[in-house]
Structure formats: C-alpha cells, structure tokens
Design a protein that fits this description.
The structure holds two protein chains of two kinds. Chain A is an all-alpha fold. Chain A contains six helices and no strands. The radius of gyration of chain B is 23 Å and the shape is globular. The chains are: A mainly alpha, B alpha+beta.
Chain lengths: 167, 271
C-alpha cells in the first residue's frame, strides 16, 4: 500500500467516523472506522509505512475530539506494531480474522481510554458505564471492522497497480 | 544490521511520541487545526449529501400522513395563539417595569451563526464541531447558544472550525440559577436512553425546587450570558453530605441540537 493511499483512507475514515451517529444503548461509543483501517493496513504494509499510519491515525483521532494531542498515539502504535509482528500467523484475507481482531481491538481501546482518562482526571471512572461500553465495544468492533475490511479491500483491488517492466 | 535498523526506527517513534506529548498548547492547536481544515470539506460534502437524501425521503413520506399532520398543526396553532397572548401581556408588563425602574436596556450581544459540521470522533466526549473559527470571529471559551437555550462553550478553535464542548460534558461547568438561588451545573454525559444529562449542585437546601422548574445561567464568571435557559429540573434530592440539594437537568438545547448554533462574539469572554 502506498503512503498516499494510506493517507487518503485515514482522512476519509476520520471524516466518516465523526459523521456516524452514536448509539446510546452501547454507551455512546464511536464506530471504530479508524481502528478498522489501521488493522487492515497493519496486515498489508511494511514497518515504516505502518508507523506512519499509526501516527496519522492517532493524530487524526486526537484532533477530532477535545482530548490532548498524543493521548491515543500509544494505543494506535501498539495495535499497529503488535498486529504487524503477528501478521505471519494471521489470515489477512479472511472476514473472520477481522471479526476477531475488531472485537479485541475495540475492547482494548475502551480499557485503554478508561484507564488513561481516569488516571489523568479527564473523565470520571463510572464502572456501570464502563461495563456497558465494554459490551458495546464487542458488538461495534465485531460489526464495523469486517465491514471496513470488505469496503477497503474492494477499493484496494479496484485501484490499478503499476505494471513491472521486465527487460 | 536489519535488527539495528528496527531498533533505530522504534527509538525515532518514541522520540516523536514524546515530542507530540510535550508540545506547547499553541502548537497543539495548530496541528489539530491543520487536520480539521483538511477533513472539514469532506465532512461538509458527506453531510450535505445526507441531508438532501433525508429531505427527499421526508417529502415522499409526508404524503401518507398529511391529514394527521394537518390536525396536529391546527392544535399547535391554537396553543401558540394562547401562548402569544400570554407573552404579549408579559412583554407589556415587563416594558412598564423597565421604564419605571429606569433599567438600562441590556446590550444585545453580537452572535455568530455557525453550522454544526460533525460530532466528536470519540464517544468519550460530548462535543460537536462547528464550521466557523478564528477567521470568522469565533474565539476560545465563548458561549454557544441556540433558540432552545445554552448549548455549551467553544474549546479548541482553529482557523475555520471550532470544537464546542456541550453542557452535558463532564468538563463543562456553568454557574446557574433556579428559583432565585444559585448553583453549579456540571455535565453527566448521556444516559442509556440517549438523553444528555446535567446535574445542578450546591443548591440551598431550604429553597423549594420542583420538577419542571427552569434552570438558567447566572451570568457569573463572564463566559455565559445571563438568563439563558439551560434546561428543566427532572429530579431533586439532598446531596450526599446533606448540606445542599442537587437536581438532575435535561439540557433542552443539547437534546434539540439543530444544524445551526450561535456563538457569542463577545470580546471580553474569559480566556
């Protein structure tokens, strides 16, 4: 995947994520479009581009909310780095892989933000709401990430690849 | 060699991360503004397309329930006429009192209309983004209101966008008044029914507060103008320490958040 494609995908993903309505019964969590995109990119790109994608996703995520810049960067870097390290063990072209990864990634993200926000005093820790969000994270991750995979892989395959010239 | 390269790469990442986390406030706002300005045109395009589709669907759907709609509107007209008569009496009485007491006409604050462009990307925050920023006269920490009352205050402001922290966000605190007594309204997020909630604390415990009482801004602190409706009391109880009352409030303007809000253009808001 080229850096330009990664940038465009992440910008579009951020725009969509801010426009999708939140669902109150799952604790008003956001749809994890950026997380889904980063999972897709992590399994298909080299180390340098992965770091770029993780940084970009983190900066975009923090820019579109009132949280301090850099708050979500460690999560996105760990998620991208971890998946990149495991990519030899995973089936990168199976929907079920994205179902499982989405479920786990959103669960971890919810725990990460709950810990960071409560430790820094930005949000009060409400155990009831956290439980609802963890359950909601399972559903959202399991639904959104496979959908993001299907949409992006269709787009990715539709883009013509430059042909190699053999001498 | 490859291992060394890998280590170097992660050291560079750690350094970049540290640098981002330690950026001063001014730089942070500029970086955030850059990303916001990049994505805002895309968001506006998607939003406009969505609204046009919704308007088309609504107009098609409207043909089916025209008779019911007509009946509902007629009863609404009767109710509004009664309300208008009542308002006229109140207005006349108000004018008379103002003249008698030689009150200064309160200066109407200039307001900047702004379109709501998007909501927060993270479900942990209660905020929306408006499509006006510093270049259009929107400044940091200014009151944001709508015809239904107080919406919140501006937080991060970039060249052409501004983040509005809603009054239902725990970080938004407003000095308020209910039944001639003061208190502090703090956001409580969204309940599981999807309604934004706020709580008014430190209300004098001997002042009777009833469900349905109006809570308005007190004007203390300088950020929010006086007498703007925050919401109505939903429930009242004595606080945990028994010294004060607290009341749950449904913030009307956040519940009925429309596409357009108004930002106070006051130059003297607290920074």
């Amino acid at each position: 995947m080229s850096s330009l494609l990664i940038t465009l995908l992440l910008l579009l993903g951020a725009a969509f994520q801010t426009l999708l309505p939140s669902l109150a019964f799952i604790g008003s969590l956001e749809w994890p479009v950026l997380t889904g995109l980063l999972i897709y990119i992590s399994l298909r790109t080299d180390g340098a581009r992965l770091i770029y994608a993780s940084l970009m996703a983190g900066l975009l995520y923090d820019s579109f909310s009132p949280m301090p810049l850099g708050t979500s960067l460690p999560f996105f870097l760990l998620l991208g780095g971890g998946l990149h390290a495991l990519r030899g063990e995973l089936f990168a072209d199976q929907v079920v892989t994205y179902f499982m990864l989405g479920l786990l990634a959103v669960l971890l993200k919810t725990i990460y933000f709950a810990v960071v926000f409560s430790a820094s005093g930005l949000r009060p820790l409400q155990p009831g709401l956290l439980a609802v969000r963890l359950a909601g994270g399972f559903i959202l991750g399991a639904v959104t990430v496979p959908l993001v995979y299907l949409a992006v892989s269709m787009l990715h395959h539709a883009i013509p690849k430059p042909r190699r010239r053999w001498l | 060699m490859v291992e060394q390269k890998k280590v170097l790469r992660w050291v560079a990442v750690a350094f970049a991360l540290l640098l981002i986390l330690l950026l001063p406030d001014g730089c942070t706002s500029r970086v955030k503004g850059l990303f916001k300005n990049l994505v805002t045109p895309v968001q506006s395009g998607i939003l406009k397309g969505g609204r046009s589709l919704k308007a088309g669907a609504d107009s098609v759907r409207g043909f089916g329930g025209l008779a019911e709609e007509n009946l509902r509107l007629r009863s609404e007209v009767v109710r509004l006429q009664a309300e208008a008569r009542l308002n006229k009496n109140i207005e006349e009485e108000n004018l008379k009192l103002r003249k008698l007491l030689a009150f200064h006409n309160r200066q109407t604050k200039a307001l900047i209309p702004a379109e709501v462009a998007a909501r927060s990307i993270s479900g942990w925050w209660q905020s929306v983004r408006i499509a006006k920023g510093i270049k259009e006269g929107v400044l940091h920490n200014r009151a944001v209101i709508s015809p239904d009352g107080l919406v919140g205050r501006t937080a991060d402001v970039s060249a052409h966008t501004a983040e509005v922290l809603l009054i239902s966000d725990p970080a938004c605190k407003v000095s308020a008044r209910v039944n001639h007594t003061f208190g502090l309204v703090t956001g409580q997020g969204v309940n599981l029914k999807g309604y934004p909630v706020a709580r008014m604390r430190f209300i004098h415990k001997d002042i009777p507060i009833r469900v349905g009482d109006e809570v308005v801004t007190s004007g203390l602190g300088g950020v929010f103008p006086r007498d703007v409706l925050i919401g109505r009391v939903e429930a009242v109880r004595i606080g945990e320490n028994g010294l004060y009352q607290e009341a749950d409030i449904l913030p009307q303007a956040v519940i009925n958040l429309t596409d357009v809000v108004f930002v106070s253009a006051d130059e003297e808001g607290a920074e």
